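Quick illustration, no need to memorize.
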Amino acid sequence: MRLRSVSLAALLVAMSSAAPVLAQTQAAPTAATTAQAAELAAAPVAELVSEVNIPWTRFTLDNGLTVIVHEDRKAPVVALSVWYNVGSKDEPAGSTGFAHLFEHLMFGGSENAPGSYLGRMRNLGPSNLNGTTWFDRTNYFQTVPTPALEQALFLESDRMGYLLGEVGQEVLDLQRGVVQNEKRQGDNQPYGLVQYARLEALFPEGHPYRHSTIGSMADLDAASLETVRNWFRENYGPNNAVVVLSGDIDEATARTLMDRYFGAIPRGPVNTPAEADVPTLPAPVVQVMHDRVATTRLSRSWVVPGLLSDDAVPLSVAASVLGGLASSRLDNILVRDEQTAVQVSASMQDFHRLGFFDISVNVKPGQDAAEVGRRLDAIVADFIQNGPTEEEVARVATQYVSQRIQSLEQVNGKANVLAEGQLYAGDPDHYKKELEEYASVTPAEVTAVMQRWLTRPVYDLTVAPGEREAYEEAAAAPSGAAPVPAAEIQRVERMPMPEIGQVPDLEFPAVERATLSNGIQVVYAHVDTVPVTRVGIDFNAGYAADAANRLGAQAMMIDLLDEGTTTRNGNQLAEEEERLGASVSVNASMDRTSADLSAVSANLGSSLTLLADVVRNPAFAPSEIERIRASRLAGLASERTNPGAIAARALPPLIYGEGSPYGRSFTGTGDEATITALTRDDLVATHDAWIRPDNATIFVVSDLPLSQVTPQLETAFGDWRAPSVAKGTKDFSAAVPAPTNRIVLIDRPQSPQSLIYGGAVLPVSGTDDLLALNAANVTLGSDFLSRINSDLRETKGWSYGVRGNVNTLENRVPYIVNAPVQANRTGESIAALIAQYDRFLETEGVQPTELERTINGNTRSLAGGYETSFQILGALRSNALYGRPDDYQATLASRTRALTAAQMDEAARQVINPDQFVWVVVGDASVVRPQLDALGLPVEVVAAAQ
């Protein structure tokens, strides 16, 4: 299952630093393959499993709080992860969404640390700071510098034991609005209402898993202060929680600190998580929904056993073989061979009490959805009857173990694994049991569990293009907002909050270099936390390399690189990746096209052979070109239904002008006319111009020394020669047009939320020193505590999250505001944004508390920000892209501490001017237009392209 979908977050990534992946071509092979490549050597799964170990110790405080400690001294950081054994399945009738709503309330401050929890934590310099809620649990996590751990423990314990004095009606009403906007944001996406229909169809009334975690608007409206407080009293006691400390700490220190900060919290009621059976539908359920989507989606769903069942791993293996692997049955039959689908997937989501087995197929436009559905059912029936092959099962196991190894590089990743095992299985080592099951599962076992669980009646859903049903909105005056007398909370005064110790500056790995025999430069850093090697080959290309009359050529060429080489077809490439436990990804940013490899180091040589084949020898087989062309056209149609993609297509030409290499869609996908017209010769020419050794730099982060890596790179790439055609060039000489402050409203009917996506091109480039500007923008736009997010989310409750970012490109950079807001507040939100920018830029720049928070947060977070090999690889690439020295990251702390508020203010005021912003608004014009007209800016209304 290869997915290249577009999200707004992905678009912002595409605009910055180095890209994810790519390849190079021969002059003109016409068939998919010629000579068959030999199978690559791979380490046995058992050898990989032996690499996975997370040592831990465990103790329990007198109040019942379970504490797990994992010592990892690789970096001066500690992950603090708190898991409460309560989730949405434990909510009573009429209280759906309460678990998640309370997660939000936990960030509003506590009795001995009033005000924003995130505001206080930002000063500590955390990474991975957040909270999440799911059916079975609510968790809160942060990774902090070791000298800040005591303050983090004080803050975390204060909200565990001493929260309710800060949870008043005003806080509840604000977070109710934020959560309802989070719900609108998800519901506003294509297929966004499917989750509700699926749960209601699969479960009988009263079943704990029948309602979504986000809850219903009506129940959120009804949440009263006392009801919400009782949720905390009943479920948030220390005896219902697990705390994991993972990183630069030992058990003795942990015992002292946990007793100091958590020991006095009284026990809460004994909470027994809701029991839930695995229901079977009495008969198949067939349902058709309509949504404003471009592609008909077919799905099949069953409720199956959960993660503690012996059937969980075999079911997960079955899902991977069927539709999870890139070489899956559904990919091979429906996407590659019969070409009746453009995207397929199968997955097993396992929860505490049960799981979901889901199959999804996006039908190729023009195909008969009913016929594709019948074919899907026949494929599934045959798979259930005959099962997977031994080789398929082995590939799933290798891939799973490899991904698990890589996920354990972060101390927070290890904390999550230990916490989940303890919470659900009473055993932090539960992950070892899963690994052993993956390594030993047989095709017969997989077949048996499918025949046991997937032969029961199925939920059969079709989502077809059309108008949505009426949306359930929140009440104008929520009943839970009516003040009701609540008992006064007796506050408990605690010890003073501990101070933060001296946080050491970042020790960035030494950067080494080598040169291959053909002149390709290699940039290397050594990281030995896990036995993994990451390789990135960056080509100076990206979406900006497309000629104005060939928009989308780079993206389509990239898509074809892993769909067949001169010796391996697309399925064979996928199978080799899976057998090796490797990942070869293919993607691009605006400035770079890149080929990325992550591999367990034991399989590095074979994995590099695969990467080199993809990069150097794409076949561009005519049949694959036509298949990918159809897929890209379907993707374009889907983009035009997605609010983020609609905005990312519209804004760039408005601010850069169509003559700029940046004046095209940030998605890089071009348009229908270009994609339809591209020939094989065009794609080969694109590859030869850009994907070549004299346009490449190789970046490596590995546990292996450079002396061992370089010969393997030389074997894979050293004999690669540039083609005779000229290397591609990009022309940024066209002047950026004079900005015209205005609003472009793109009409997207039935949108419960509007997406505001506005900005302008700044008079600076990515190669300039942007440290002061970015530091100023922490206060203004980029941080959770920024002026614009604090206003629209934390004060007004009109949005789930608002950001304004300096999007760093190699050449002229844009400043872009991304603000999804509730539809009836669209005009007021733009006015509020403008007011906040004017206030900062004209009268009230960075204040002393904001300066302290920014400097502390930006410097203290560095160790956590460069904890993993992936993060370090990204730093190597961005240093090369923006012309920075090798010690750039090592000097960030001292340079940041030297900044003054005046320097930050000046950096922002010199380049950001909201009077030059073009505001793109994607929303329902019938609701939004009158609001926008009242702003006094020119408003242009355009229909969302069909």
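The chain has a mean pLDDT of 93.
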